[in-house]
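User: For my dataset I need records formatted as: sequence, then structure tokens, nothing else. Please produce one.
Assistant:
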Amino acid sequence: MEKKKSHYNLIEVKNLIQAKRVKITYRASENAQIDFGFSEKDVITQVLELEQVNFYKSMTSDNNNKIWQDVYHKRINSQIAYIKIQIVDEKTVIIQFKEK
């Protein structure tokens, strides 16, 4: 399923990150390094800079149609980043961070 309205409040996403309640998946970390040369700190900085205008869609997880994930597109230099996040157990989880 998909919807055009964010499932998670972006302010809450950022507040959790600033409170050090954040997890970056191995896949997101690896793709960020390969596609952008980014460290995990760089990924966090980029997510904290997201604005609602960067929102693309919400979609359910491939593994569980009750878990929503928000997708953002953000221009970084000449590239577009595909960023997928969700909140789980009061933590922001950065699921994907790759070149679109």
